TrEMBL record:
It is found in: Cytoplasm, Cytosol; Photoreceptor inner segment. Residues 2-184 form the Guanylate kinase-like domain. This is Guanylate kinase. The keyword Signal applies. Belongs to the guanylate kinase family. Keywords: ATP-binding, Cytoplasm, Kinase, Nucleotide-binding, Signal, Transferase. One of its GO terms (cellular component) is photoreceptor inner segment. GO terms for molecular function: ATP binding; GMP kinase activity. Its EC number is 2.7.4.8. Monomer. Interacts with RD3. SMART domains: GuKc.
Length: 196
């Protein structure tokens, strides 16, 4: 099937915004790998669609049972990609998109998933902070943890070969256009197999 796509990058950079647009504009071409998390749902988030919202015990049990391809602790909460999440998308012959943090990127690199790795960056740390604050989803403590991870991860992203592409999300339309351009071969391949 088509190669999966990993979208990573700092919290608040715009990964969900870009991928939601991609899923809407290319319905049936892309499929989202629905992760598990122990964090609480934000207003508007649906269980089974945005995440599988689970307890720490459920998550730990799943990990112990070998149900996850990768898992990580981010800003005090557990997150993980289950084998089922990826298989469900691949069974539909869609391009599977994973929205994961840097620990996830490192762990996926140890698997045979062979995705395209894309990192989404904000134009500056100041703009990242503003976007996160304006999103109004984080406590001050969570915001500070996310910010520290963002600064560390943006530095790590420069490591040669870690990402296939780094996209600066300044103007949303421009970033989206760059993203669809990077993925044009996968889009064409998935559309061809959908039509045949
Ligand atoms: N290009 C842009 N210009 C201005 N605001 C943007 C842009 N892209 C995204 N935003 C806004 O910034 C905020 C963060 O975006 P988003 O939630 O998509 O980030 P994220 O990378 O998915 O974060 P997280 O990893 O925390 O889920 C949102 O409120 C979104 O509407
Ligand atoms: N390693 C993983 N990271 C994940 C997964 N699902 C989401 N994430 C990353 O967590 C942070 C925070 O997400 P938020 O929804 O609480 O803002 C963000 O960087 C996501 O990319 C996962 O399954 N594995």
């Amino acid at each position: 099937g088509p190669r999966p796509v990993v979208l990573s990058g700092p919290s608040g950079a715009g990964k969900s915004t870009l991928l939601k647009k991609l899923l809407k504009d290319y319905e049936g071409v892309f499929g989202f790998s629905v992760s598990h998390t122990t964090r609480s749902p934000r207003p508007g988030e649906a269980n089974g669609k945005d995440y599988h919202f689970v307890t720490r015990e459920e998550m730990q049990q799943g990990i112990a049972n070998g149900e996850f391809i990768e898992n990580a602790v981010f800003s005090g909460n557990m997150y993980g990609t289950s084998k089922m999440a990826v298989q469900a998308v691949q069974a539909r012959n869609q391009v599977c998109i994973l929205d994961i943090d840097m620990q996830g990127v490192r762990n996926i690199k140890k698997t045979d998933l062979n995705p395209i790795y894309i990192s989404i960056h904000p134009p500056s740390v100041e703009i990242l902070v503003k976007r996160l604050r304006d999103r109004n989803t984080e406590s001050e403590e969570s915001l500070q943890k996310r910010l520290q991870a963002a600064i560390d991860d943006m530095e790590i992203s420069k490591e040669p070969g870690l990402f296939d592409e780094i996209i600066i999300n300044d103007d949303l339309e421009e970033a989206y256009s760059r993203l669809t351009d990077v993925l044009k071969e996968e889009i064409a391949a998935a559309q061809t197999s959908k039509d045949s």
